[in-house]
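Q: Got a minute? One more chain.
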Amino acid sequence: MSRTTMPTRLTSSLILSLALITSACGSSMKTPDIKQNPHPKMRYEITMTIDGAPGPFDSVTAFVQYKVSNDRCVPLQPISGATLAPEDSVPLDLTKISDKVYTGHLYVDLLQDEDYYGLGVCHWEVVAATAVLQVKNVGFSPGLFKADVLAQRSATRYFLERDYFDAHAGKENMFPSDPGESSPSVYKAEFQGHLFSATLVAKEDFL
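A: Always. Here it is, folded:
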């Protein structure tokens, strides 16, 4: 069975909803109207190469996660006194070059920095670009984190062929999202010859 280290979006959404309706002093707090930068310039071309997949995928999609980097621009939560930085997820359009290669463009400065709460300008940053190779109810999800994007480094994730076949067969009790592993050596020796991989790499393509 595949493992996933990605937090559930449901839990994050519930916490964020609570944080956005109250402030540290108990007064109403507006829900931020997240805007996109009308003229983003910091563009990176993202290329994904799939190697050794045992069959086709039902769909291949991607998204980019963003988060406010300076949480001092966000009001304190009334009970814990902590801050919860806003997050957003934006689809990343992919172009299919071949059955193995897909490309798309990520904008580091896509979201508009703005004073959302009257506490100073909130600055957005990229968290990661994540692809979703969907097979039935399972998404094999290789990701490329901010540091790799800015350094124009590649990142490869490895997946079990067995998990692909189990997903294709509709096996129950599988995790809905499988981020894979960073090295074949993580898997037991008997599985290391039965893996497929997805490599993501960023290339600066500023406008």
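A: The mean pLDDT is 87.
Q: Perfect, thanks.
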